[in-house]
Amino acid sequence: MSGGSFVVAIDGPAASGKGTLARGLAERFSLAHLDTGSLYRATAFLVLEAGGDPADAAAAERAARHVTPALLGDPRLRGEAVGAAASVVAAIAQVRRALLDFQRDFAAHPPAPPRGSRTRGPRTRGPRIRGAVLDGRDIGSVVCPQAQVKLFLTASLEARAARRLKELRERGEPAIYEAVLLDLKERDARDTLRHAAPLRAAPGAVTIDTTALDADRALESVSQLIARSLDAAR
User: Fold this and answer.
1) 95 and 195 Cβ atoms separated by less than 8 Å
2) pLDDT digits (tens, 9 = 90+) for 12-44
3) pTM for the complete prediction?
4) How far is residue 232's CA from residue 97's CA, in Å, rounded to a whole number?
5) How many Å apart are CA 206 and CA 201, to the nearest integer?
6) Average pLDDT of the residues of the chain
7) Does the pLDDT of residue 118 top 60, yes or no?
8) pLDDT band at residue 119 using 50, 70 and 90 as cut-offs
């Protein structure tokens, strides 16, 4: 295990459903959760707040070294401008190095689940195991290559664009499908073609196509795998 911790690594492109799945698994199995994309959003937010250019490697690295856990929950990080800038800073090798220790430390020493929480869903045998679910673009391949469970989520570009459009409109943000589709295409290109930790399925990862799966069905199908892995880890 990563520092004695049970780790679930979930990777995939934007709007593939990895964040929703990660949160569901963390709640169901009383595991800590880290949306690593929020680290890059926080970095981008700090750069933009300072009036900087997200493509400026030095400015982005400085911002990455000032990211704090408290900032990760700031609702301003969810804006589309920050999201687009996050994809830019995430392609900078210095930024990824600056944030790597943060992620690995979380995986090795996850915070304890809330008092009174308990595992739901598929039963697991034996004592509760301390662990974490991390979702992002390079968790299984770079951040936690020794994770007990590695998943790679994917979905059609059109399905992902429809999901992102719905999410934006539910937040009250004006959005046009064609613009969202183009943004996702550009993000996919940056994520898969960058030299620093490109987006790809890690060796041994289970690939799940969520195009035709809703969040509940995806959670149920993966929960069986997590339950078996937890039992084997005890």
Assistant:
1) no
2) 999 999 999 999 999 999 999 999 999 999 999
3) 0.89
4) 32
5) 8
6) 92
7) no
8) low
